[in-house]
Amino acid sequence: MSAVISAQNLNLVFETGDGPVQALKDVNLTIEKGDFVSFIGPSGCGKTTFLRVIAGLETPTSGEITVNGMTPDAARRARAYGYVFQAAGLYPWRTIGANVRLPLEIMGFPKTEQDLRVQRVLDLVELGGFEKKYPWQLSGGMQQRASIARALAFDADILLMDEPFGALDEIVRDRLNEEVLSLWARTGKTIGFVTHSIPEAVYLSTKIVVMSPRPGRITDVIESPLPRHRPLEIRDSPEFIEIAHRVREGLRAGHVE
Ligand SMILES: Nc1ncnc2c1ncn2[C@@H]1O[C@H](COP(=O)(O)OP(=O)(O)OP(=O)(O)O)[C@@H](O)[C@H]1O
């Protein structure tokens, strides 16, 4: 009974100039504490919308959703989650340290506590020593790590990540995938992660949610049999290839109308 996020019969319709768009249809999903859940599917299948519903940034048209047993809005006000966007979104006029510190300033943490937390999360994402640099002095991968540090600064139990590594090259992405797994293992956080990449979804997740567009819906939920500790080489194992195959089949099935 440790559901951190529970969605039942969730529907969300956007009214647009071209008529209604059903971004989410009959979504049912339970995310347990400590799960790493990836959302994968083609453009427009509602991945971002679902993450935004969890975050209380979009309101469903019908259905139920709870986050830590509360409404998403109450959970948002209780700072239940950190959110990492597709682009790092760091302020160029603030140093890395000052960017990571920003949510702590807004929340009114005492200065000494801010210092401690900034140091701790920068160490967690292996950016210790970079706090005085400006975003433009860092590589794209490092900027994205800084943005993860900012989302971790106030130590919420839930981390929502919307395609955080989509713009990075494959080598950097592999490295960050390993780091996110290690961070997840060390912190025990519950992670919701949007991706377009099958290997990324299979490598990272305990649960893979396959989605399909028009209307946006869940077509498969795969509980991963892979161990929690995963070296990158696991991607060559038969188990990995089998799960990737199932995801691919799910994506293909969703395309047949
Ligand atoms: N604010 C909005 N107003 C109107 N339509 C919207 C809005 N936000 C999303 N949509 C529509 O809802 C559907 C789902 O969009 P969403 O961004 O959740 O998809 P996605 O799977 O995250 O796509 P991508 O992979 O391209 O980010 C799309 O058809 C999109 O055009």
UniProtKB/TrEMBL annotation:
One Gene Ontology MF term: ATP binding
Alphabetized SUPFAM superfamilies for the sequence: P-loop containing nucleoside triphosphate hydrolases
Protein family per UniProt: Belongs to the ABC transporter superfamily.
Matches recorded under InterPro entries: AAA+_ATPase, ABC_transporter-like_ATP-bd, ABC_transporter-like_CS, ABC_transporter_ATP-bind, P-loop_NTPase
Domain of life: Bacteria
Protein's recorded name: ABC nitrate transporter, nucleotide binding/ATPase protein
Ranges where the ABC transporter domain occurs: 7-234
Swiss-Prot/TrEMBL keywords: ATP-binding, Nucleotide-binding, Transport
Pfam families referenced in this protein's UniProt entry, alphabetically: ABC_tran
